[in-house]
Amino acid sequence: MDPDVLVIGGGNAALCAALMAREAGATVLLLEAAPRAWRGGNSAHTRNLRCMHDAPQDVLVEAYPEEEFWQDLLKVTGGLTDEALARLVIRHSSSCRPWMRRHGVHFQPPLSGALHVARTNAFFMGGGKALVNAYFRSAEALGVQVRYETPVERLEIADGRFVAAHLKDGERIAAKTCVLAAGGFESNRDWLREAWGQNERGEWPSDNFLIRGTAFNQGVLLRHLLEDHGAERIGDPTQAHMVAIDARAPLYDGGICTRIDCVSLGVVVNRDGERFYDEGEDFWPKRYAIWGRLVAQQPGQIGYSIIDAKAIGRFMPPVFPGVKADTLPELAHKLGLPVDSFMRTLDSYNAACRVGTFDHTALDDCHTEGLAPAKTHWARPIDTAPFYGYALKPGVTFTYLGLKTGDTAAVRFGGAASPNLFVAGEMMAGNVLGKGYTAGVGMSIGTAFGRIAGANAARAARQQPAQPLATLIATEQGALHAAA
Questions:
Q1: Is residue 87 a part of any domain in this protein?
Q2: Which of 85, 132, 303, 427 lies 20 to 30 Å from 233 when distance is taken between CA atoms?
Q3: Is residue 362 located within the same domain as residue 448?
Q4: Do 420 and 379 fall into the same domain?
Q5: FAD-dependent oxidoreductase 2 FAD-binding domain: which residues (predicted)?
Q6: What is the CATH number of the domain that holds 112?
Q7: Domain limits at 384?
Q8: Does 158 fall in a domain?
């Protein structure tokens, strides 16, 4: 039988949508392009959810009020965000965890290497893979039908209304409503090349990008909706959650363990041995996501993070050990960097350091003077052997080009909201993230809009109008109270 709600995708947003729709009484079919062993998309690589809270809550310490969350998001996006939708996500993040727990998700206090986000982020017990598995177990127990290795090639849409999905093998699946949660296009190498083009050095920067997550986010339906159906778009195709990761990482699915987290404790140079940005601009969880783009703008799309023995033990070590040397010239030689320019850079940096009270957990007073670019915090001379170097490449997590939406999660065509086609997760994250990133906010967006999309898809299947989040949550809480 044709389902009430068809969910396309298999990550956090898709699963939240499927669960919400099923809880509302709809029949649900979820299509995941990946094999079962690779299910979950980028969500399988996540660790936490950024959460607003006005007082300590179980695994969250102190408080993280709405306005501070908003200001953090405003800073990293440079204002390229829809404030109404951003605040919707922020407010939802304060109340979603009880629902997540009901579907088998467990939380834990942050590990020692992540204490700097203990106040702002709730960590999943077992990480994103455990979250994805819990949601799939709950969905299947509730009667959601799941099909793996089922990529959708195109949609049948009439006057902004979803009619059916057409699979790659030619099968047609009709449904009363549909939720799109199939991710961005970061795994599509041709589209990345098209978006980034050629730089002034004649390089194709995207050829040197690594993909931190799934190989299955090809952007097929995103391009289809934008180009074939004229869906309203949001975002810049070159903007993405892009992180500096170990250059030795695999092309796909390297995940969090390949991220290099010692940047703020040392200096970063390009292949010419020159610094190019302030490594101590702000706390690492607020700035780590700019470094992939910074490295992408350097010659050869490569950089090198340099630290000394004083930094060891103060950051989460990556999966691969760094290149080690007893002297700085030896380190430059091992990394293949020009020794003379490298030493000029390091000598200038060391001489410019004004060391006060070093504290890597606070915005301390250790800074440089008379140096461009400056290092505004955590500036200490790199002078204590052994020395370590990590080669960096841009690691793309997900792209920000997506479908424009509003507080009901409906896809928009020609200024009008679709009555039965909804979007969640990376396919619409650009509404909130015009650029930049702060740790855990992708899961906050996916959870909020996945739940909105699923609930409204179930309503549309009953020919009821879509509702904004506040109304949906109030209805849900009322039902829970009545059941109790």
A1: yes
A2: 132
A3: no
A4: no
A5: 4-433
A6: 3.50.50.60
A7: 241-395
A8: yes
Same domain for 417 and 368: no
3-state secondary structure the chain: CCCCEEEECCCHHHHHHHHHHHHCCCCEEEECCCCHHHCCHHHHHCCEEECCECCCECCECCCECHHHHHHHHHHHHCCCCCHHHHHHHHHHHCCCHHHHHHCCCCEECCCHHHHHHCCCEEEECCHHHHHHHHHHHHHHHHCCEEECCCCEEEEEEECCEEEEEEECCCCEEECCEEEECCCCCCCCHHHHHHHHCCCCCCCCHHHHCEECCCCCCCCHHHHHHHHHCCECEECCCCCEEEEEEECCCCCCCCCHHHECCCHHHCEEEECCCCECCCCCCCCHHHHHHHHHHHHHCCHHHCEEEEEEHHHCCCCCCCCCCCEEECCHHHHHHHHCCCHHHHHHHHHHHHHHEECCCCCCCCCCCCEECCCCCCCCCCCCCCCCCCEEEEEEEEEEEEECCEECCCCCCEEEECCEEEEEEEECHHHCHHHCCCCCCCCCHHHHHHHHHHHHHHHHHHHHHCCCCCCCHHHHHHHHHHHHHHHC
Domain's final residue, options 372, 395, 418? 395
- Provide the domain count of the chain: 2
Query: Both 410 and 466 in a single domain?
Result: yes
Note whether 176 and 256 are same-domain residues. Answer: no
